[in-house]
């Protein structure tokens, strides 16, 4: 089942090397109930201070929290901040054997928090020049760190990972089964042809060197429109562009864009959500999940930490709980009608579709993502096992109804799933009354038996095209052919 994915990934215990710029995140927690006499600024009475891994160190800690063996290759100063960073990493079960002493002081990013709001951030030694010998120290640490590693995650934040380090990695590129690059400047790593690069929207825009999306165009669609330039600039095999509150976009060659949808949350004050996303993506890919499923797992992990104030990590148990909540999106018809009534009262546009979804494939996911973009809430009604047998024959479905429903519910584009037992979802349509009913295929709207029901309450019917060469029957036939050969 879907929640078991978290335990399966953790149970593999892969070895992951994280290479990059580590910082010490300092969080000073307090309360404020007065202003300073000297200036109109709050006075914060600091009650406690937390010292946490930041930057590449936070990525390493997040990967370790999800069950991997993690080696960090980085630099830390021989100062109190460096000692605190090493101790924070050891508490997070990150191997610091390959963290070398830097000539410069350890960079710290300090945030003062009162009433769960960041009042001010101040950085210490963030702009200090790097010593020419620092790059060599990193290069010298690489061979031992990479020995037997399953993946390398690069976290390049304009620190020590310059041309010398890239040259050293290029010489060993054939030894790296999986290379993921998280950087402000992915174009600098193009010669290594990373398996995945993970820029955010601002970084992708900078790589393209052109204005962001035009008015009325979503950031996801704008990125998809410029995918060719992004692949050319980054040299990557796959690109995942994170869009904060709008989720993320996965681009793979000429395959359709895959979009994830972030859980709505007030302005987040968790600066490490991107690190959590990269960590979970790495573990999911190492666990053999398809790229589309891997980014869904990564989105679920990021959704865990964005609800917190402070640098944070997502553990295996928290990821399991988050995925279990997705499985809990499978509702009875009565409960679904109640939930939809509340969402409609809140002004949400409800989109509804239905189908067997027996063997979930790329065509289904592209179709569901397109349906989600047409409204705020996507409801998927799934044919029961009895209904599928009646429609498709006695050897179907391949997957039982509750597993099919759980897989759909785990997709971030799907908000609610229900199972219906009739030939058509007419009864569910009457109780939920969606604003838009969508169906995939070569139908005309008036050909659909559900169309009169939707028209009767003033709803809209729209037909979306399926991806060519993607059908459940074809997938099942290929599986059977392979099994018999």
TrEMBL record:
GO terms for molecular function: ATP binding; heptose 7-phosphate kinase activity; heptose-1-phosphate adenylyltransferase activity; phosphotransferase activity, alcohol group as acceptor. Pfam families: CTP_transf_like, PfkB. Its EC number is 2.7.1.167, 2.7.7.70. The active site is at 275. Residues 352-485 are annotated as: Cytidylyltransferase. It is an enzyme of class 2 (transferase). Residues 352-443 form the Cytidyltransferase-like domain. It comes from the Bacteria. It catalyses: D-glycero-beta-D-manno-heptose 7-phosphate + ATP = D-glycero-beta-D-manno-heptose 1,7-bisphosphate + ADP + H(+); D-glycero-beta-D-manno-heptose 1-phosphate + ATP + H(+) = ADP-D-glycero-beta-D-manno-heptose + diphosphate. Residues 1-329 are annotated as: Ribokinase. Catalyzes the ADP transfer from ATP to D-glycero-beta-D-manno-heptose 1-phosphate, yielding ADP-D-glycero-beta-D-manno-heptose. PANTHER family: BIFUNCTIONAL PROTEIN HLDE. Homodimer. This is Bifunctional protein HldE. It comes from Nocardia veterana.
């Amino acid at each position: 089942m879907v929640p078991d994915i978290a335990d399966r990934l953790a149970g593999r215990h892969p070895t992951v090397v994280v290479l990059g710029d580590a910082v010490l995140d300092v969080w000073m927690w307090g309360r404020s109930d007065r202003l300073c006499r000297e200036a109109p600024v709050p006075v914060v009475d600091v009650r406690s201070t937390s010292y946490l891994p930041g930057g590449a160190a936070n990525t390493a800690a997040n990967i370790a929290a999800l069950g991997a063996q993690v080696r960090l290759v980085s630099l830390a100063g021989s100062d109190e901040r460096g000692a605190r960073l090493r101790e924070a990493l050891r508490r997070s079960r990150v191997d610091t054997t390959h963290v070398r002493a830097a000539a410069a002081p350890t960079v710290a990013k300090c945030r003062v928090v009162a009433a769960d709001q960041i009042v001010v951030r101040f950085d210490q030694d963030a702009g200090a020049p790097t010593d020419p010998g620092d790059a060599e120290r990193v290069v010298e640490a690489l061979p031992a760190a990479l020995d037997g590693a399953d993946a390398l995650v690069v976290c390049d934040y304009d620190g020590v990972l310059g041309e010398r380090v890239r040259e050293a990695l290029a010489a060993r590129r054939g030894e790296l089964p999986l290379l993921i690059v998280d950087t402000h400047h992915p174009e600098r790593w193009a010669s290594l042809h990373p398996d995945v690069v993970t820029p955010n929207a601002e970084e992708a825009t900078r790589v393209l060197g052109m204005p962001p999306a035009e008015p009325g165009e979503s950031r996801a669609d704008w990125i998809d429109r410029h995918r060719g330039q992004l692949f050319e600039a980054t040299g990557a095999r796959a690109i995942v562009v994170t869009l904060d509150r709008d989720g993320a976009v996965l681009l793979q060659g000429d395959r359709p864009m895959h979009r994830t949808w972030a859980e709505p949350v007030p302005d987040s004050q968790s600066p490490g959500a991107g690190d959590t996303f990269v960590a979970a993506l790495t573990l999911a890919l190492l666990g053999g999940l398809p790229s589309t499923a891997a980014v869904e797992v990564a989105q679920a992990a990021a959704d865990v930490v964005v609800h917190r104030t402070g640098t944070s990590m997502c553990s295996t148990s928290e990821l399991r709980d988050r995925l279990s909540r997705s499985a809990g999106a499978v509702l009875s018809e009565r409960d679904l009608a109640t939930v939809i009534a509340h969402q409609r009262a809140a002004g949400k546009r409800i989109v509804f579709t239905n189908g067997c979804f027996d063997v979930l494939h790329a065509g289904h996911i592209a179709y569901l993502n397109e349906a989600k973009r047409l409204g705020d809430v996507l409801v998927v009604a799934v044919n029961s096992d009895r209904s599928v047998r009646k429609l498709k024959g006695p050897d179907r479905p391949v997957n039982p109804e509750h597993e099919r429903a759980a897989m759909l519910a785990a997709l971030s584009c799907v908000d609610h799933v229900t199972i219906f037992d009739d030939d058509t979802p007419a009864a569910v349509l009457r109780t939920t009354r969606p604003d838009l009913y969508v169906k995939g295929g070569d139908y005309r709207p008036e050909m659909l038996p559900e169309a009169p029901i939707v028209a009767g309450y003033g709803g809209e019917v729209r037909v979306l095209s399926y991806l060519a060469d993607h059908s459940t029957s074809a997938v099942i036939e290929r599986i059977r052919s392979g099994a018999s050969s």
